[in-house]
Amino acid sequence: MGSEISKKDITRLGFRSSLLQASFNYERMQAGGFTWAMLPILKKIYK
């Protein structure tokens, strides 16, 4: 497993999630936005 998740990582996740929520649409690709928001943390966990 990768290194631990820091407070900075959580803050970045929150910011990226906010950008995702600003353009939330039930007809379009939401999984791509969620993945984009989670990508830095997933890379850190599964390094």
Backbone shape: elongated
Uncertain segments of ≥5 residues (pLDDT<50)?
Answer: none
Helix content: 55-70%
Structural class: mainly alpha
Q: Write the H/E string, N to C.
A: HH
The percentage of residues in β strands lies in: under 5%
Number of helices: 2
Largest sheet, strands/sense/barrel = none
How many β-strands, per DSSP?
0
Could you tell me the radius of gyration in angstroms?
12 Å
Count structural domains.
1
Determine the mean pLDDT. Answer: 79
- First CA to last CA: what distance? 6 Å
Membrane topology: Multi-pass membrane protein
Organism: Escherichia coli
InterPro entries: GatZ_KbaZ_carbometab (IPR050303), PTS_IID_man (IPR004704)
Keywords: Cell membrane, Membrane, Phosphotransferase system, Sugar transport, Transmembrane, Transmembrane helix, Transport
Characterise this structure:
Helices cover 68% and strands 0% of the residues. By secondary structure, it is mainly alpha-helical. The chain has helices at residues 7-22, 30-45. The chain contains two helices and no strands. The radius of gyration is 12 Å and the shape is elongated. Helix 1 (7-22) packs antiparallel against helix 2 (30-45). The protein has one domain (7-45).
